[in-house]
Amino acid sequence: MNYLKTIFLLFLLLSSCSSDSSIGPRVNQDDDRPDDSDPVYYSADEFIMGADLSYVNQILDHGGIYSVDSEIQNPYKIFADHGTNTVRLRLWHNPEWVQTEVYEDPEKPLYSGFDDVKRSMEEAKAQGMAVNLDFHYSDIWADPSHQNIPAAWIEITDIEELKDSVYAYTYQTLEKLNEEGLMPEFVQVGNETNCGMMFTNAPEGFPPLNGCDGYWDNLGAVINSGIQAVLDVAAGSEINPKIILHIAQPENTEWWFENIMSEGGVSDFDIIGISYYSHFSDTPLIELDDYISTFRDKFDREVMVVETAYPWTTENADQYNNIFGQSAIEPNYPATKEGQLQYFIDLTQAVMDGGGSGVMVWEPAWITSDMKDLWGTGSSWENNAFFDYDGDLHQGINFMTTDYEL
Q1: How many CB atoms lie within 10 A of CB 110?
Q2: Residue 379 near residue 317 (C-beta atoms within 8 A)
Q3: Where in the chain are the domains?
Q4: Which of 236, 300, 239, 305 has its CA nearest to residue 270?
Q5: Counting CB atoms within 10 angstroms of each CB, which of 107, 159, 217, 340 has the fewest?
Q6: Is 3.30.70.20 the CATH classification of the domain at 119-255?
Q7: Which of 143, 259, 155, 255 is nearest to 203 (CA)?
Q8: Which residues are known catalytic residues?
Q9: What is the DSSP track for 328-355?
Q10: Structure pTM?
């Protein structure tokens, strides 16, 4: 460990001598991390310190253990105790494949389905955290390359029927949650909708929603249906959720919002949500603040990084290959716990400098366990988590309680 510290300190020294492009507060040179003995806790109204914990229930159900200084604890409490003020949760329409294809067990929970998300929301709110509910409008992952139609809607051929289906589903979901005191504080209408929604497995006759093919009017109509459902439920709730529209990577954001607002007629939303994974992006971290400032000024909306991650190691804890390997490592940020922490400190300060409203880290609790998905058992993300390979919390999470210049 002393050897790693020495290398890291030399790396920082050389970097500081050769470049003035670093941003944010620097790591404490005495122990490779900021002094967290006097942590600063931010409220969700002040700045979102968020974590996507969508996998936690499944991990707990399949042998995963979370601890702090080797003491086993409730993971939701761990995050709340260490500065997390908002939990992000994905919602799939009807993920039956979890039972039929992954576990081949009809008794298994439909993870990321309604009941599972409700369970997570209860846990998060019990710990005093806000919730960002992320509607994927799909039975499975929605991202820039995969926007599959839910099986229940795949035979729809009329745009009005599709709008009604999106409205009814969104409304009924939120109404059920509201009745149980679980109204989310934030709602994402779609996930990484770079070209649109519900288009990658679209049969002939399904209303086209691909903005990249010019169907902004249809896409805008469907998004507006989801937005209207949020507004209608909020009218009878004590909580009025802020509505987020979400695009992957800053360089895609301005073009998308120009089109969805002008051609799609979408205006009733509060937050521009961005995924920022630096090695997938054309935007270097030192330019992120300028992008955020530009979006705020041009669109008169809040801006938030709703997905991000960085590795603390390139080693594996299990046989499930990791998504982030050596190619994900950025200059000035080695794949160490200290390097991960500094990356998040600098990213968070950049978001603040640009006038942004928050940062949400994607699946920082996806540790290895006996959980399964379609591609493996364990985790393909454990090297990005805030827990070591014994499930013990490490210092990466301390970026949430660092003293920033707001």
Answers
A1: 17
A2: yes
A3: 1-8+23-84+276-406, 119-255
A4: 300
A5: 107
A6: no
A7: 155
A8: 192, 307
A9: GPBTTB-SSHHHHHHHHHHHHHHHHHTT
A10: 0.91
Q: 383: which 2 tokens?
A: 């090297």
Structure tokens at 392: 């013990």
Residues in the chain: 406
394 vs 397: CA distance, rounded Å: 7
